[in-house]
Q: What sequence folds into this?
């Protein structure tokens, strides 16, 4: 898994509950890639979800702000 955030300069911490962190760590372990960072996996997951729901997100945002962010 390669994250688009890996080359980005702008990085910030995000906080997740311990249960979520453990679940994501288990997923990372199951994937068998020890070089992939937890944050890279989370970034990939978020990009995937944004891609799936971009039409709905655009609709809601456009309805509220008259423009499309995604």
A:
């Amino acid at each position: 898994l390669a994250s688009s955030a890996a080359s980005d300069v702008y990085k910030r911490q995000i906080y997740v509950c311990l249960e979520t962190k453990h679940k994501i760590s288990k997923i990372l372990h199951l994937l068998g890639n020890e070089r992939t960072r937890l944050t890279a996996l989370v970034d990939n997951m978020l990009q995937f979800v944004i891609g799936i729901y971009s039409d709905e997100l655009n609709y809601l945002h456009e309805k509220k702000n008259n423009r499309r962010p995604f």
Observations:
- The chain has a mean pLDDT of 81.
- DSSP finds three helices and no strands in the chain.
